[in-house]
Amino acid sequence: MADANEKFLGELLKKSGNNECADCGAKNPEWASYNIGIFLCTRCAGVHRSMGAHISKVKHLKLDRWEDSQVTRVREVGNNAARLYYEERVPPCYRRPNQDAPQVLVEQWIRAKYEREEFCHPERQNQYVSGFMEGFLMKRGKEDARYHPRKFVLSEADDTLKYHVKENKDPKAILRISELNVAFAPPKTGNQNSLQISFMKDGSTRHIYVYHEDPEVITTWYLAIRCAKLHRLQVAYPGASEKELLSQLTRDFAREGFLWKTGPRHSDAYKKRWFTLDNRKLMYHDDPMDAHPKGEIFIGHSSEGFSIKTGVPPGAKDQGFSFTLETPDRSFLLSAQSEDDRAQWINVIQKVIQKPLTPQDATVAARLVRKRTASGTMNIFSSTSNFIGLSSRLQFTRNKMGHESMVK
Ligand SMILES: [Zn+2]
């Protein structure tokens, strides 16, 4: 009997929709929830189990014994039908996790779907789609590295995210929602429920780190920032497609890790730095959680003189797994931790160099340039041509809306 059911489950798995995890899309699911009637990957099955059997009952397709009635349920529902029901009203700004997504995002997506049924009952999404949110988050101190409770206030109408040291006093900082980036930061902070918020301040990037002990609360903040960004973009660029705008809400970093880097003179010693590649911006820091990068390199297009290659120029020191980033103004000599690490860094940077610039990229470049020029060191960016993405018509709309334009 068990064998017949196992075989039948194998047949069901081949049906369209069932061959990918119902919650994250990972290929070849090995588990199923037999009361909901869906096929799941190992990670998502673990999340289902953690919600309790009153929400979801999971079994392994091969290792567990299946009753006829349980197989029938999975046959009657399946991933496609379940998705139509449980994902009927997912707001566009919601980040649907894929198999590489941070754990807390996957967990909260699954709980939102089956436990809170937020996408069957849109009024339950008010906390993140309403455009306003306030509450306390634990924020890492800039100097002392300890976390302190700070009151945060998000206002889509004002395009601001503020935080207060003292609740009734002026905010310590006012961030523009449209100009900040937010990413989950568990590998760096060691806390699952943590976010890294990055923004430009006085011509350079500033990072802040926050967490909340409740994974639902931190995810709600993340989603609220995304939703506010989307709504503002929709107003600023009425002609843009939703897909185009969604790609600009939040970015995970393409790559982070320690590299060794020389100073401006190639005879300088290599120093260990924490590198973060954020879209076209390659930042380096003394410590992974520094509030400010020590330096920021804007990576332009290959046609403007940017390139990356293995090794170092003749006469320069090669420290193990070296590679060279050429910019119009300087060669950066870098060294990775291993052959594989170097290959991955070169790969992600190469992709950036080959990608045409968008107006948003130029905004970032212009602001970094301003800083470098002001301090009299160097101009790291020389051209604002070669744009694709949002058209100049949209750029014009943005200016007309009264936003500050950095694109010259
Ligand atoms: Zn999954």
Automatic annotation (TrEMBL):
Pfam families attached to this UniProt entry: ArfGap, PH
tRNA processing among keywords: no
UniProt xrefs under SUPFAM superfamilies: ArfGap/RecO-like zinc finger, PH domain-like
Compartments (UniProt record): Cytoplasm
Keyword Cytoplasm: yes
Entry keywords, A to Z: Cytoplasm, GTPase activation, Metal-binding, Repeat, Zinc, Zinc-finger
Domain Arf-GAP: from-to ranges: 6-127
Protein name, entry field: Arf-GAP with dual PH domain-containing protein 1-like
Matches recorded under InterPro entries: Arf-GAP_dual-PH_domain (IPR052589), ARFGAP/RecO (IPR037278), ArfGAP_dom (IPR001164), ArfGAP_dom_sf (IPR038508), PH-like_dom_sf (IPR011993), PH1_ADAP (IPR037849), PH2_ADAP (IPR037851), PH_domain (IPR001849)
Ranges of residues in domain PH: 130-230, 252-354
GO-annotated molecular function: GTPase activator activity; phosphatidylinositol bisphosphate binding; phosphatidylinositol-3,4,5-trisphosphate binding; zinc ion binding
